[in-house]
Amino acid sequence: MDLTRHADEYWRAKGDSVDEERLGVLVDLVPKTGEVLVVDAGPGMLADRLREVGCDVRTTDVSAHAVERARTRGLEAIQVDTDDDPLPFDDGRFACVVSDSAIEHRFWPQKAVRECARVLAAEGTFVLLVPNVAHWRHRIQLLFGRFPEVPDGPTDRCHLRMLALPELSSWVRDAGLSVQKVRGFPSLWVKGLYPALLRAPGVRGFYRLLCRLRPSLFARDVILICTKTG
Predict the structure, then answer these.
(1) Average model confidence (pLDDT) for the chain?
(2) Buried b (16+ CB within 10 A) or exposed e, 28-41
(3) Does 30 have pLDDT greater than 90?
(4) Is the pLDDT of residue 1 over 70?
(5) Alpha-carbon Rg for the chain in angstroms
(6) Kind of pairing, strands 76-79 and 94-100?
(7) Helical H runs in the chain?
(8) Does domain 3-228 have CATH number 3.30.420.40?
(9) Among residues 26, 103, 149, 186, which one has the fewest Cβ atoms lying within 10 Å of its Cβ?
(10) End-to-end Cα spacing for the chain
(11) What angle do CA 27, 119, 172 make, to 5 degrees?
(12) What are phi and psi of 124, to 5 degrees?
């Protein structure tokens, strides 16, 4: 499979629409001092938001088309496929590295985590967001012998790897990082995961609370906030 060509086709067909609430959560987690790297950043929607709040941002992506769109925003963007090549930056360069819904699109996601850790400065912050395959909906489906594709969910067909919190935590520890906090984000707009009731005004807030309390069970996305320990 040619991931570069696939990513180019994906981004040519997709506009800049994005879950603004989720971007806001990520922006709040990123320190506002030092250089920030957003890995597999697509056309740069998150990076653009980070720049708006004063961050000094760099981006990478496997797609040449996405990189060109990021550059039209005025972002410093580099094309790189972390399955094949290391990130083109020195060890310990960045105060913060962000991977937002990215490593599940890699053949070798653990390698991508190690590369993010390598370019992160000592005591720097690594923010990792990944769709959560241990979501309650999938747990129930597996109990009944089913595991269907859910568009825009953790089992979306464009995901090469399906990941859950225990293995992610193990990977970041193996890369020399310490998990400081785990957050959950519901992504209630994913209709294949949620009945309409959970999007009702009086219920949304309660479900968001459940995602904070038990992210590995209730959240569509788990977010690990990590620190480089050495």
Answers:
(1) 95
(2) ebbeeeebbbbbbb
(3) yes
(4) no
(5) 17
(6) unpaired
(7) 3-13, 20-29, 45-52, 64-72, 109-118, 136-143, 165-174, 201-213, 215-218
(8) no
(9) 149
(10) 37
(11) 75
(12) -75, 170
* Token pair for 143: 């109990």
Q: In the numeric block, which tokens belong to residue 33?
A: 């001092």
* Block residue for tokens 């040449």: 64
Q: Which tokens hold the place of 225?
A: 């906030």
CA atoms within 13 A on the CB side of 53: 17
Which residues are paired to 182 by β-bridges? 224
Tokens of 83: 């399955």
Would you give the DSSP letter of residue 109?
H
How many residues make up the chain in this entry?
A: 230
Joined tokens for residue 121: 């400065």
- 61: part of which helix (H) or strand (E)? strand 56-61
Give residue 29's identity as a one-letter amino acid code: L
* Per-residue tokens: 126: 């690594």
Q: How far apart are CA 62 and CA 118, in angstroms?
A: 19
Instruction: Give the separation between CA 17 and CA 45, rounded to whole angstroms.
Output: 9
Specify the pLDDT at position 64.
95
Vertex 129 angle, CA 128 and 130, to 5°: 120
Tokens standing for 173? 């520890």
pLDDT per residue as tens digits for the range 53-110: 999 999 999 999 999 999 999 999 999 999 999 999 999 999 999 999 999 999 999 9
